Amino acid sequence: MFAGSIKRLQKVVHARAKEKGFWPELEKEENPNIPRAIAWAHSELSEAYEAARKGFPPDEHCPGHGAFEVELGDAIFIIIDLAEAAGVDLEGAMLAKMKHNRERPYKHGKDF
After folding, report:
1. How many structural domains does the chain have?
2. Is 54 inside any structural domain?
3. pLDDT in tens, 72-103
4. Alpha carbon of 40 to those of 1, 22, 54, 78, 97: distances in Å?
5. What is the Cα–Cα distance from 85 to 29, expressed in whole angstroms?
6. Cα–Cα distance for residue pair 62/58, rounded to 1 Å
7. What are 31-49's pLDDT values in tens digits?
8. What 3-state DSSP class applies to 53?
9. Is residue 109 part of a domain?
10. Rounded to the nearest 5 degrees, what angle is found at the Cα of 87, between the Cα atoms of 80 and 90?
11. Cα torsion for 39, 67, 72, 15, to the nearest 10°?
12. Are 85 and 23 in contact (CB under 8 A)?
């Protein structure tokens, strides 16, 4: 399906983030600043939420795309970047979770 795509994307996204200065203080540390990256991804999701609340306006920086979709993309970039910085096999975990979810009952056996 997308074998190797996420792994390649992790490397590209993380290299760009480092190039743009988002990891300088962490290059000498063993572990990335996980809480900061998680909070940042959460803030991007909140921006997507606000874009939806405002009626899905166009994005001011990416012509032809809405603010909602651009903010979702930002959240994904941050998550992918964090996965690479932390040495996480995001693709493997996603595929394993997809398999697990495929075998789960409807709504995971809950009402909501």
Report:
1. 1
2. yes
3. 999 999 999 999 988 899 999 999 999 999 99
4. 29, 12, 21, 7, 24
5. 11
6. 8
7. 667 888 999 999 999 999 9
8. helix
9. no
10. 45
11. -80
12. yes
